[in-house]
Amino acid sequence: MEKIKLVIVDDSVETRNNIKLLLSFEKRIEIIGEAENGEEAVFITREAHPDIVLMDINMPVMDGIRATEEISLSVPESTVIIMSVQGEQEYMKKAMSAGARDFLNKPFTGDELTKTILKTYDIESKRREHSAITRSYEEIKSTVITVFSTKGGVGKTTIASNLAVGIARSTKKKVALVDLDLQFGDIAIMLNVSVKNTISDMIKEINQLDRDLMDDYLVTHFSGVRVLPAPIKPEYAEYITSSHLEKIVNLLKEHYHYVIIDTSASFHETVLAALDMSDRILFVSTLDLPTIKNIKSGLDIMDSLHYPKDKIKIILNKASEQFGIKYKDFENTLKHPIWSFIPEDSQTVITSANKGFPFVMTRTETRVAKAIMGMCGELVRENNSINEKPTVKKLFG
Prior knowledge:
Elements: E1 4-9, H1 13-23, E2 29-35, H2 38-48, E3 52-56, H3 64-74, E4 79-84, H4 89-98, E5 102-105, H5 110-123, H6 125-136, E6 143-148, H7 156-171, E7 175-180, H8 187-191, H9 199-202, H10 211-217, E8 219-220, E9 226-228, H11 242-255, E10 258-263, H12 269-277, E11 280-285, H13 289-304, E12 312-319, H14 327-334, E13 338-343, H15 346-355, H16 359-362, H17 367-384
Parallel strand pairs: 1-2, 1-3, 3-4, 4-5, 6-10, 6-11, 7-9, 7-10, 11-12, 12-13
Antiparallel strand pairs: 8-9
């Protein structure tokens, strides 16, 4: 059963938490985002296209009435339910004229909240069902992209998470993001998504795994990216095998246009399985000698595995020649061209990670965001030009 995607908007953290608690037992409803004012609500709704927006009226920056008007005009497929301590007819009239479909008076019970959401959703179900049928017959030509390195701390997770969000936003296609750093994966933290189940929980039902069951384990980021988180405890990693991963990725390929995989800095059997199944390997390096040595060793291993050269794309992260190593020397050492340069911007990257908002959404004007979006554009162009010879293009942020 397809879940009802919900965004909660209220300037009170306590209220938002109480609503999440009230809805925690309703399996049909999935909370995909929250906002503390109307401006954030409009932003998240435009990105995530939720089924229902649960909107408070009285908030700072932009109130709920104005936010409802903007959402009704710009994202008509998202339905707004207004909630307020003000029960007067005047507020109800304003809410309905702004485009809201229902009205909840605070405080409300869990039963009242659930019934209102389900009733409102069911009113819109015919149109939504028609859209779902149209999508189900769409032919999926999936591309698997693995972000890899033989050195930790080079920015794989930052690149993978922003790449997934960037492709989802620019193509409007379905994107899945798999955290295959099975011991210390940080994708869930990077995207600030709530983790209920992980890949280690999924493999307990691997023999019964199908599309519906898969959906229960994927977490929805408000950009639309579906995330399969890494295990909560490092010791759970040992129970996940390459055959598990192959089944998971093959099922994702049937339903997602792009499958992005973030990996650990090793040639573990699951990582090798991901590399084997990948259409593109984004091999991340920085410009320091220890990392370059490890990258060279990794390329030698890939060469021994007979990976085509055009399958491997070298990304130089935190790119700068100011520390004594030239780009040309780097390329000569690896005997492989640099495909993309990502500039150093620690302030943007760290702030983005701490807030859980990918910088390709919130800091689009920065050079680092432009570099990632350049990568997205190149990967999409290559994917769309199946009969054309792939070109190598250096992307400068």
